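Please review this one:
***
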Amino acid sequence: MNGIPYLSVVIPVFNEEENLLPLTQELVSVLDSLEKSWEIIFVDDGSTDKSPEILNGIREKMPRVQVVTFKKNFGQTAAFDAGFKTARGDIIITMDADMQNDPGDIPELLESLGSYDLVCGWRNKRNDTFIRTLSSIIANSIRNTLSREDIHDVGCSLKVFKKEYVKKLKLYNGMHRFFPTLVKMEGGRVIEIIVNHRPRKYGTAKYNIRNRIIRSFVDLLAVCWMKKRTLNYEIKDKKK
């Protein structure tokens, strides 16, 4: 591909060896249908299965695919951050590697961007276990109440950003859960639309209630503090 791509798709990967080839094939088909230049950036977050080898194989066959490989597992926020810093497109799309996000929703997300700066996917009908679905509902409710937000499903990775707002983000561990709030804090406009959520065919979920509830709550308190202390002023006059 010559020149700078218009669309950059950033996908964190951690032990998703069975999903990578079918995901890439499906995603490429959707991106080609958009008739826009594109690139895909996989960020391997210290996978211990065959994901690194599969990703390198994909990259060798497809010049529009980039692979960023971490030395060890640093977490999803770090993976997104590395992908954002690698992305060259004016529009940045994020999604999971587990194939539960549907690439077929990307055209509608892009169409909804318009005057907004971030479009968030909302998995209105979850294809997860009862416990995972219930924990997500509770977490979103607590998060919205304390942070005074109205996002139904902040945990959905399928999102579309304008590049200028991605570049403004200063991320810390766990901050990927608060992308809508962080974009709003930078003056961006955010909208949420319903997207498809598919059942997981291969592999297992990497996150559960035990490994995220306490850490997520601490992160939430930090974001609430940041939101409350964000500078907000208007200049009446400025003379030189």
About this structure: The mean pLDDT is 86. DSSP finds eight helices and seven strands in the chain. The radius of gyration is 18 Å. The domain at 7-127+151-206 is CATH 3.90.550.10 (Spore Coat Polysaccharide Biosynthesis Protein SpsA; Chain A).
